[in-house]
Write a structure and sequence with these properties.
- The chain has 247 residues and is of the alpha+beta class.
- Helix content is 21%, strand content 11%.
- It has helices at 2-23, 93-97, 100-108, 173-179, 216-219, 239-244, and strands at residues 42-43, 80-81, 131-133, 136-137, 162-163, 171-172, 187-190, 193-196, 202-204, 213-214.
- The strands form 4 sheets. A 3-stranded antiparallel sheet has the order 1-3-4, with no helix packed on it. The chain has a 3-stranded antiparallel sheet with strand order 7-8-9.
- Strand 3 (131-133) and strand 4 (136-137) form a beta hairpin.
- It starts with a helix and ends with a helix.
Amino acid sequence: MKKTLTMAGIALVAITSAASAQVLSPVIAGGPHDLTSGSALRNTNTSIAGQTCVFCHTPHGGANLIPLWNRSNPTGTTYQLYTSSTTDATTTGTAIAASVSGACMSCHDGTMAMDVLLNVNGLPFTPAVAFTRQGSAKATYSSTGGGTSNLMSGGLPYLGADLRNDHPVTIVYETARAATPTEYVTQVASGPKITVGTSNPLPLFGASAGTATVECASCHNAHNNSLGNFLRKSNAGSAICTACHIK
């Protein structure tokens, strides 16, 4: 009996460790963004099974907003945006849809099915059964449409179109800093990269320092979840906040 209990305990530890590794992975494979075997979705379509990268990228026929992006950014979505009496920069829902952050929102706002891809094996993807979630088969999707299934609809990853309780994106950092320079860290231009913060700085996105914007990818790295929530760096001591904000 003692041996049986010991082996059961080892098995439980192994299962727990495997689950933690899946969530906190420094690579895509096996993590939440691996839609071939991720915790939220299980791929069951043989034409796409095992293609971890294809849900975001394609070697041919991709979009250029993000390197070889394999999805369309959301269109026709009306985002409700964060605002306050102390806001130093503003943006619009249209700007979000066409931005780097729009690529993230193509899944996270729940308006476009996760299996709507530009190119799979040379063709727009029209799967008969793309995923199963918790054992339930999903419906058919066209290469351009959404659907009632395979749409993100709940949990921490789901943002929806109401962003009034989320950090604003597509705001021009320099515009905010110029309005209240004592409250923002001076940005740094280093070759083609524009960053903010001196210790493990965060990236801004734009053609110049004067137009560089804060995007979802300023704080999150979709390819690395080793810190949880795909954070670019540890937020101990509010380090992510103070990279931009002087507090």
